[in-house]
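Task card 7
Instruction: Convert sequence to structure tokens.
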Amino acid sequence: MKFQLVIQFAANTREEFEDLLELTDSVTNALAGELETVVDGHDYGLGEFNIFIHTDDPEEVFAKTADFIDRQRPGIPFAAGYRGFDEDTYTVRWPEGAERFAVS
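Output:
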């Protein structure tokens, strides 16, 4: 797989962390068998929770993932970006109009 797609949420409490762990499992199940994706896990810290997804088609996988998140947790704010594994800079995918995406 050529790209790492990162879905990022604000998370500062244990409850938010546990809720996002549950969401990570749901995303993993929703993407199972889709477009040769692998949900490579998550990290948590510095006020953010990141879900890492490996894929060859970050745009399509983002669209499916964003739709799934919106159905499971309507209105939950998140950001997303992707990069090639040989790149340092992320392409911002969400929210619209954002100019920068980074993983802390």
